[in-house]
Design goal:
The chain contains 2 helices and 3 strands, in the order H-H-E-E-E. The chain is an alpha+beta fold. A 3-stranded antiparallel β-sheet has the order 1-2-3, with helices on one face. InterPro entries: RNase_H-like, RVT-Znf. It comes from Hibiscus sabdariffa (roselle).
Length: about 100
């Protein structure tokens, strides 16, 4: 499967629990602030484990305003926080609501 290098790196980081939030970067003194660089709000989102025996699916989509191209992706984790599977998909041109 042909995948862009930055997606491979992102998936490797997600698989190995190495993605850092702004809050985590701030605690490690890698950033001066835990504020989001896009919306200037504090990064306070924390992933919580689902109940025992359950899995949690997190997904999101994005659309580029310049040409309308959109993509979506997601991740499934078990009740221990272990990465089970992830996905990415190019949706093509669509509206913001579709992405």
């Amino acid at each position: 499967m042909k995948v862009m290098q930055r997606i491979k790196v992102f998936m490797w980081l997600a698989f190995h629990d190495r993605l850092l939030t702004n809050a985590e970067r701030s605690m490690r003194h890698l950033e001066d602030s835990n504020m989001c660089s896009l919306c200037s709000l504090p990064d306070i989102m924390v992933w919580k484990h689902p109940p025992m025996g359950w899995v949690e699916v997190n997904c999101d989509g994005v659309r580029r305003s310049s040409d309308g191209m959109a993509s979506a992706g997601g991740i499934v984790r078990d009740d221990y926080g272990k990465w089970l599977i992830g996905f990415v998909r190019s949706i093509g041109r669509c509206s913001v609501l579709c992405a």
